[in-house]
Design goal:
CATH class of the largest domain: Alpha Beta
CATH superfamily of the largest domain: P-loop containing nucleotide triphosphate hydrolases
CATH architecture of the largest domain: 3-Layer(aba) Sandwich
Largest sheet: 7 strands, mixed
Number of domains: 3
Number of helices: 18
Radius of gyration: 28 Å
Distance between the termini: 82 Å
CATH topology of the largest domain: Rossmann fold
Strand content: 25-35%
């Protein structure tokens, strides 16, 4: 029987010269560099499997034991390194093989003895793989929730939440702690909401992640918004609108002053559209500034100011400060009150091009919302260039969708012939069982001109103004949704979800 020495009080670094480290790791055999020399490092707990692996690999390295703490540290470093290597090369690996190699549930079950804290390599690996799968599936938000008996991870894809995986409650707690670590939040604070932000690089892609942690009755829950970086902000032609709408965008962006508003519910693409506008206008010849809550995209050539209500930096105060900075173009993240609205429109009147958002269902309602905030109609009609109300509509997956006769009640509500055929979503492997694949952008664009100004002046209510606008050539959201339905691009359920009855 040969003797294997034990090295005490040493720190081993992961050896980068050995191949097949993943197979050896499963057998408890590690490779480490100590004082410039490479060793095969064993654990007495798994000595037989490690020796068998050593023999099968036909190695010619000195074998040593390490103290338990040093061995555990090297094990975690090795596992993290292998995870990083796999994720870095995953662009060359299809998602199916990745999932086979990194089965999350099996991995966590098999590594339960290592799940001691948020720095455990299995937890690090799980969080990294979660981000990888989110990128592959075009996820906009990751929800991590704690329930009474278990934890749950859900993905928001194309605007709709769906379950991704169930996990033990103890594992969810460690995952949330790991997310707090990477976003520089207080892992010990579990009583108060926390907000953070981090940047990650997965599979060769850089990603900004906005993080919200909220305490609930059964434990903390986390929502992570995945944001594209500045280089990924789409151009005007890439936003997904039809060519006629894109041409109108170009017309609006030729103005040197005035205000352009984008409206729509949360998740309708308002921020992406506005930042696409800014990217079109920004450059060395213009001073482009924004006040946002929070800053979503780290945009190139744009001076971005985050709202900080704790120190009194509101939209209104930030906008006042921006006006003293000699701006050409200003983005106000959202007009929430009359003070901000008044300052924004005054800025538009005094030679600045201003962009902002409002939460209204359609373009004409934006005008009445400004009036409700105390802005005079004459100021609106003289400064407002246009209002874009936009939606993102899921496209039906044509690999599995089937045509069906429209339901009688739907035909009545949508004012369609009862013999109309529409597409019904089914779900298949190509669309991840959702029944939909991708999204289409649609927009209702109110562009100010003499005719619109006249209608606005003589309208007593939003309803009256909207009815008068229907006599013009403006295309309305509801009509566009019906067109998509009849063109078999989407489903009845989807246009109802998007709000065909509200638009």
């Amino acid at each position: 029987m040969f003797h294997i020495p034990t090295l005490n009080n040493v720190t081993a670094q992961v050896s980068s010269t050995q191949r097949d480290s993943s197979q050896a790791l499963r057998q408890g055999l590690l490779f480490g560099d100590i004082e410039g020399k490479t060793y095969a490092i064993l654990s007495q707990k798994e000595i037989l499997s490690a020796l068998n692996c050593y023999g099968a690999m036909e190695l010619d390295l000195p074998m040593v034991y390490l103290e338990d703490e040093a061995y555990e540290a090297l094990y975690l470093k090795t596992l993290e390194m292998l995870t990083d290597l796999q994720l870095a090369s995953s662009s060359e690996v299809n998602e199916e093989s990745f999932d086979d190699e990194f089965s999350l549930v099996d991995f966590l079950k098999n590594s339960s003895d290592l799940l001691t804290n948020e720095e455990s390599a299995p937890i690090i690996k799980f969080v990294n793989t979660l981000f990888y799968q989110a990128i592959k599936r075009r996820v906009s938000d990751i929800h991590i929730e704690t329930h009474e008996q278990k934890g749950e991870v859900r993905f928001r894809i194309d605007g709709v939440l769906s379950k991704h995986i169930d996990l033990d409650k103890a594992i969810i707690s460690l995952v949330i702690s790991r997310i707090k670590v990477i976003s520089n939040l207080d892992i010990a604070e579990k009583r108060l909401p926390q907000d953070g932000r981090t940047q990650i690089k997965i599979a060769g892609k850089s990603l900004d992640v906005r993080i919200s942690v909220l305490p609930t009755y059964h434990g903390e829950r986390v929502v992570m918004r995945l944001l594209m970086n500045a280089a990924s902000i789409p151009g005007l032609e890439e936003l997904g609108f039809d060519p006629k709408m894109t041409e109108r965008f170009y017309e609006l962006l030729k103005f040197s002053h005035g205000i352009i508003l984008v409206t729509g519910p949360t998740g309708s693409g308002k921020s992406t559209t506005l930042h696409s506008f800014l990217q079109r206008l920004s450059g060395p010849q213009k001073n482009v500034m924004s006040i946002e809550d929070p800053v979503e995209y780290d945009a190139a050539h744009v001076s971005q100011i985050p709202v900080n209500s704790k120190v009194g930096l509101t939209f209104a105060e930030g906008l006042r400060s921006i006006l003293r900075q000699d701006p050409d173009v200003i983005l106000v993240g959202e007009i929430r009150d009359g003070e901000t609205a008044s300052i924004a429109l005054q800025a538009a009147m005094t030679g600045h091009l201003v962009f902002s958002t409002l939460h209204t269902n359609n373009s004409t309602s934006a005008v009445s919302r400004l009036v409700d905030m105390g802005v005079d109609k004459f100021l609106i009609s003289s400064t407002l260039l246009g209002v874009l109300a936009q939606r993102l509509v899921r496209k039906v997956c044509h690999a599995c969708a089937v045509p069906v006769l429209i339901d009688f009640a739907d035909a009545r509500d949508l004012e369609l012939p009862k013999d109309t055929y529409v597409m019904q979503s089914v779900g298949c492997s190509q669309c991840n069982k959702t029944g939909y694949a991708g999204r289409i952008a649609i927009g209702e664009l109110l562009m100010m001109n003499d005719e619109v100004q006249l209608h606005l002046k003589h309208s007593e209510s939003d309803t009256e103004f909207r009815q008068k606008m229907k006599t013009t050539a403006m295309e309305f959201l509801a009509d566009q949704l019906i067109e998509l339905l009849l063109a078999h691009q989407t489903t009845v359920e989807e246009i109802i979800r998007v709000g065909v009855k509200e638009a």
